[in-house]
């Protein structure tokens, strides 16, 4: 299997059978070599720098009913909130003072955020903090809407594809949500000029190893600037409450494979990874990730943005404790930096 890793290292791609074999491989030597290659690539391109993003969870109101998600429309036990422009700007202010140069506005698909409302928020952030990047993670919208958001100054957009297999997609989402539309949105975002991010959950219900190989092949072909991959974690108030959580080791192995497929990719060690395993986020970095996204939401809403149970929101996960995060990264030989942390094009 060492040969397969070398092939991935040289060509940046494997075929489906090879990916499946690598994903299923339990050989410690092979897996160790995969990790080493991924870390080496990451150091070549991004040095030991870890980019930080201030995550502002702007609303947990959502019109969708995704079976895995804790803020799905049907969850009556979810106490709903939405942040107004002033709240968001005040998060940016404290974030800026802490050293954040990217703000990620993430939320459910909440009709309150019309193009007009969002463009006003985005242009205000950009005029107050011209040296900062604005990333949006607000779900599916029309191409026209994405274009308006881009023209008002947004730089990046995260929209996980969730699974590249249409049949699997239909087992995770109600019928009105389709893989076709999700893929169209991703294509539109990229065409408009956004630095675009896709991604998926590891261990989501009904997911097979073959599905993961399909996700990886899609990522290799789509060539996003960012990829978000974290373990699935069940939420009590969803149809998937009794399903097991995804595996942290498999998640880390997938991070390494993605680093070798797309050496320049911006790859977060996700909150979900930190939530399934102690020091999971550090582990993600040690497998090739180069981004962390501490929580910059107002403290009184943090426990309400519960996508899954036991989601971390305190300690080094909280933006105001950036020093803890810095320390934990330093301990493993990495350095958090104050910069927009853009995608590196040439290397
Ligand atoms: N476990 C892990 N990740 C989840 N997400 C939503 N629900 C869960 C869950 N139960 C992820 C989805 C979504 C992102 C914002 O959070 O992949 O795209």
Q: Tell me about the largest β-sheet.
A: 6 strands, parallel
Determine the strand fraction and express it as a percent band. 5-15%
- Calculate Rg over CA atoms: 19 Å
What does the average pLDDT come to?
A: 96
SSE pattern, N- to C-terminal: HHHEEHEHEHEHHEHEHHHEHE
Shape: globular
Bound ligand species? 5'-deoxyadenosine
Give the CATH superfamily: Aldolase class I
CATH architecture: Alpha-Beta Barrel
Structural class by secondary-structure content: alpha/beta
CATH topology: TIM Barrel
Oligomer: single chain
| Parts with pLDDT < 50 across at least 5 consecutive residues | none
Distance between the termini: 27 Å
Describe the structure.
The longest helix is centred in the N-terminal third of the chain and has 19 residues, at 28-46. The chain is 42% helix and 12% strand. It has a 6-stranded parallel sheet with strand order 2-3-4-5-6-7. The protein is an alpha/beta fold. The chain has helices spanning 2-11, 16-24, 28-46, 85-98, 115-128, 143-151, 166-172, 179-192, 209-222, 248-261, 271-276, 280-286, 322-331, and strands spanning 49-52, 54-59, 102-107, 133-137, 156-158, 195-202, 226-231, 291-292, 335-337. It has one domain (2-337): TIM Barrel, CATH 3.20.20.70. The mean pLDDT is 96. It binds 5'-deoxyadenosine (5AD).
Short description:
The chain is an alpha/beta fold. 42% of the residues lie in helices and 12% in strands. The protein starts with a helix and ends in a 10-residue tail after the last strand.
